[in-house]
Amino acid sequence: MKTVIYHLPNPQDETELRHAADILRTGGLVAFPTETVYGVGAAITFPDAIRRIFEVKGRPNDNPLIVHIPEPEQLKDLAEDIPSVAWTLADRFWPGPLTLVLKRKGVVPDEVTAGLSTVAVRIPGHPVALKLLQLAGLPVAAPSANLSGRPSPTLGKDVAEDLNGKIDVIIDAGPAGIGLESTVLDLTGPQPRVLRPGGVTREMLEEVFGPGGVEAPWRVEADKPSAPGMKYRHYAPKAPLKVFSGFRKQVEDVIRLKVQENVSAGHRVAVLGFDGNEQAFPGAEFLSLGCWDRPEEAAQRLFRLLRECDRRGVNVIFGECPPKTGVGLAVMNRLWKAAGGDVIEL
Ligand code: TXA
Ligand code: MG
Fold this sequence. Notes:
Order of helices and strands: EHEEHEHEHEHEHEHEEEHEHEEHEHE
Oligomer: single chain
Low-confidence stretches: 225-230
Structural class: alpha/beta
Bound molecules: threonylcarbamoyladenylate, magnesium ion
Strand content: 15-25%
Number of helices: 11
Distance between the termini: 50 Å
């Protein structure tokens, strides 16, 4: 299949967006930017197209998709028994990086929800995504536009690297904003629970639910492997990643030693570290996650740097930890998953 790639400087370029919306309306697959990462979508009225999304990504079919809509009102078409707090959250955080898990309505096909009785919904806060959804006029199910297991795409060229030739259209509108996927919040249980931390942080949710009113651990895996005992690596670079958590100085010392050992063994080593540590790990290729106390920078860079490690062909990667507050919690969660759980607490 030939993939058409549109480069959009702004959403006023309606001809191309209209064409992409037509593709969605006729059961095609379109990759588009959001304020979190790039997604690859199909209209939920085409179950075959939804199945193709799973095929092209190589995604396990028990992992449900998020439905994207442009207007809060449309939530009523997809979900039932919507608690009033959902509307409060929608008011406050939509459009934006918050996905709500609610009881599903029968119109949402099983292909989207992987047969669950719930549905995940969000309004993306990116002008191109919003315009595309408005023009398509149908809810669009869209996972991140990467091959399953790889880091999510934050640039149009990352999408092309994984999906060129497999989908109808890629809309490249420059870097996605936050760089990590949306916060997934389950409102169907006894207590609101974050299934995946993201750009809407625990602190922001506590403004609605009160302190401690929402469960938000960083070691949480919304998309667990269905086979018990299987080690699940998600967002994973090709080389093994080991992450160290603890006092910054101690972490630095341990990584320096690990780098020395690996370099002497003839390995090519990368370190994902914070500004100021450029010279701290002789022999390693240093990739900066930005300023330690501005975890938004790490969020923006993490997936891009994991892909960069693949491009460079390093043999092993060591990572420093961000603070586990604000969006740092989401960065920590993705590092943990990319490391296949290999986070060493010092
Ligand atoms: O920021 C984002 O959310 C991006 C952009 C494209 O919108 N999308 C995204 O989709 O990250 P995906 O498929 O890569 O991740 C969807 C997550 C998965 O962890 C999935 O298990 C969870 O949402 N999810 C979807 N439906 C669910 C449901 N009904 N119950 C629980 N978790 C659900
Ligand atoms: Mg994904």
